[in-house]
Amino acid sequence: MSQKKILLGITILGICLIATLFIGFKQSLVDIKQDERGIIISPYEPSGFYRELLKPGRHLIKPGERVMIYSVGSQIYEVAENSITGDDPIQSKTKDGKVIQLDVSVTYRIDPETLIDLHIVWQNRYQDNMVRPAVREITRQVIAKFNLSEIPSRLSEIEGAISKELKARFDDNYLTFERFGIQNIH
Predict the structure, then answer these.
(1) What pTM does this model have?
(2) Residue 134: other Cβ atoms inside 10 A
(3) What topology is assigned to 75-185 in CATH?
(4) How far apart are CA 186 and CA 184, in angstroms?
(5) Distance in angstroms between the alpha carbons of the first and the last residue of the chain
(6) pLDDT tens column, 15-57
C-alpha cells in the first residue's frame, strides 16, 4: 500500500474521531433556562437519577445520561371548547338535575423544592394524569351541590370551593396551586 493511501486513511480516521468527540461533547452540554430545572437521569445512580437538580445555566453531563427538563414557571391548564389542550368543556349535573358545560382554567406551577418528589410519582405525566382529572372531578363535585338558578349569583363561592379542593389535591401531588376560574357556562 502506498504511503499516500495510508496517510489518507489516517487523516479520514482522525477527522471521524474528532467529529465523533465533538458530537459527543455537544450532546453532553445541557442548557437550563431561568424558569426551568433539570433532573439528570443516570445509569450510574442506583435510583436512576441524581437527587440534586440542575439549576439555570450550562451543564456538562456524562455519556449515557440524559436530562428531563421541567418548567417551574406558571402553567395554565384550560378546559374549553376551543382550548389548546383539545379538552371538551366539563359536563356537570347540578343539584336539580340540569346538565351544564363549563369552560375553566387553572394556573399552577412546579415548586423546585418538591420537583424530585413530583418526578418520582408523576415524571412528565403530571398534567394528563393528575391536573386534568382533578380539575374535572372537583369541578363536577362542587357544581353538583348547587341548583342551576344559584350558579350565576354564587359564582365566586363556587370558584372558591373548587380552588380550596384543588389546592389540597395539588399540594398532595407536589404542585403549587395558584388560581382557578370559570370562564364560561353553557
Answers:
(1) 0.81
(2) 21
(3) Tetrahydropterin Synthase; Chain A (3.30.479)
(4) 7
(5) 83
(6) 766 666 555 555 678 999 999 999 999 999 999 999 999 999 9
